[in-house]
């Protein structure tokens, strides 16, 4: 499928921007080069429409030229997605940095700043409900396989752990609500002892995760590891 070739932009700054793109994209892919040229085209069209009197690089200013262009991107129709907006700013900043070096106009490197580029919104996964968490535990207990139970439980709750990690980074004092364990009737004999140990380990781990980094949290971590070893030894007693 052939691409429609657009006519070149008629602007006095077009040649100098084209040279900067050529220099910047020597080792880049054709698609990346097209992206840089497309960004330059949009910027020059904006300058030609909103600031027709501008005809040299040393006339470029952060206000009104760059901030005005950023505002123009926000109100264009159809609306520009956040990822597309970020890509445009990043490529434009790279071109300004290239021009600052090649044209010896170092103030161009400060036209677009790092803080001007927004971050992509984070979409956190939905956590397990207490009911789902309880059903998982019961299913793992039914299978009676510690190795498989551990691996599958970690696989399923990984999204929960990632969610809480992101919440902790964005708001260190935030404590994510922990699931409550509703205990089912325990089995008799050694199987009941193992059920009790697993339930105690789960409650201990949920409480430990709600604590900040401290000696108490480290101590609970060691206790949880001991419970794991105790459960493993208890399972050996139950083996035929």
Structure description:
There is one protein chain. By secondary structure, this protein is mainly α. It has two domains: 14-116; 130-238, no CATH class. 63% of the residues lie in helices and 0% in strands. It has eight helices and no strands. The longest helix is centred in the middle third of the chain and has 25 residues, at 146-170.
SSE topology string: HHHHHHHH
Cα radius of gyration in angstroms: 30 Å
Q: How many helices in DSSP terms?
A: 8
- 3D shape: elongated
Q: What is the number of E strands?
A: 0
Question: Which class do the helix and strand fractions yield?
Answer: mainly alpha
Largest sheet data: none
**What is the oligomeric state here?**
single chain
**Distance linking N and C termini:** 68 Å
Report the average pLDDT across residues: 78
Number of domains: 2
List the uncertain runs. Answer: 172-183
Proportion of β residues? under 5%
Task: Give the % helix.
Answer: 55-70%
